[in-house]
Amino acid sequence: MDNLKDLTIKSFGEGLREKKFSAMEATLAYFENIKKTDPSLGAYLHLMEESAVTQAEKVDLALQNDENLGALAGVPLAIKDNILIKGHPATAASKMLKDYVASYNASVINKLEKSGAIFLGKTNMDEFAMGSSTENSAFRLTRNPRDMERVPGGSSGGSAAAVAGDLALAALGSDTGGSIRQPAALCGVVGLKSTYGTVSRSGLIAMASSLDQIGPITKTVADAAQVFMAIQGSDPLDNTNVGLEYDPKEILEPKLENVKKLRIGVPKEFMVGGLEDKVQAGIEQAIEKIKSLGLEFKTISLPNAKYALSTYYIIMPAEVSSNLARFDGIRYGTRDGENKKQSLLDIYLSERGRGFGAETKRRIILGTFVLSSGYYDAYYEKAQRVRALMRRDLNEAFKEVDVILSPTTPTTAFKIGEKTSDPLSMYLSDIFTIPANMAEIPAISIPVEKFKEGELPVGFQLMGRRFREADILGLGQYYEKLN
Amino acid sequence: MASPINKKVLQSLSGLARLELQDKEADKILEDLRNILDHFNELQELDTSSVVSEVIPEKGRKIFREDEERIGTNLGAGKESFPQTEDGFLAIPPVFKD
Does A333 touch chain B (CB under 8 A)? Predict the structure, then answer.
């Protein structure tokens, strides 16, 4: 197991079945790399070596006995720290949850266990998934493995860094406004946010419930399709789950003749001004490559997309302020500073004041403001109406095209500390990714080309119709064959 | 347009949100919120009077499930991660001051 770099889920499965290596050897090889690299990279918050070794033993025993192996048998995964794994910490990178140990499994974890996957550990993130650089973690800094002076993106920065740095073969992240796709783009890996309601949110620490979705971060689109198939599907524990089961054949083995029929739209509003030169050039390169497959391109218009940021930063904090009310300092939290003379209200105020970081507080206050009497109509309700307009724009566009192509981010990975003092400039990182969450449609970020030493990666985004993950995953799988 | 937010409003919001803010912290949040709310003003140029929002929470919608035994509800789980317990009970601070 000396070459983790070229390993994909597909080649891993073949190697395991052909007995070129065992699940145990693979697991230990990843832990060796983690111990060597992670002290400087900072991808993980908590390692799960003991339970991973037990999982690997089980897979190897099943292999020895010629038992049927799950689709992800032995695959070493990293899991974002806002997804619960029973018996292990789940801090969501917040001081508020520094001692919290999950008392049940997230539904995606149960599904992954069933498919034979192995969990290496929990990855760093922006506190409660709020941020675009992972700098809002209460515990540590994560660096971009492609350039250690730069951020990995966020909020699933630890997961993206782990995959890009070969500290896991694949990972799970969560995406509320781009938190899977943006770090994937900045680290040169693939990130998929599926249609809202297709992957269970049970056991995901909620940020903004109408937008949150768990999804894979992987090295290839084919791998993303594999992990997506393992985690999608119905779940009675999530009442926003649509109960749909995808057809594995269409997702995993797309036909070129179907991909060639896809009509691609490029929104004119996304291609004017503000793009870093390298991103602009990357998108043009991606378009040329897709054209070489013989696909038809069309310029489309999403006139209300320019309001995405304002709309998102009203709706999301409103939901954040409600969801984070459960962290009252009593059921969770440290109660370190507790003084017997304090009343319950005093404890709420002081524990929440001490337990949450700056960005989390900013969003709780903003959310409380937009929901408050007198401002509700001007902000929250207005934003919900604009959200409806943005959905309408996308529905109109999808009458003419099947897939919408855009940059994933306006810039490549920025320097650590570059944007921390100006929240608005940080928020702009999500300008192209927010519309997919607003409209509940699937979207994927794919590297324009294979990573070249000394260059910063650029990602492009494909958005599809609701429940048409097959279109973006199909095109993506043929795109990466061109590389 | 004058910013709808000032020190007094912020104080009231942090009370509603049960969030104690240090003075320095409050100053920074105030400045950031003013900038962010300025940015939000762009929404006012849009006429949305004829738009029906699909996602405004519905009032009065009730979803009841059948009253039958289903998946275990994890009763008692998490007790061990509760910050304080006493004789098997979860200990919480008094609601009122002495």
Answer: yes
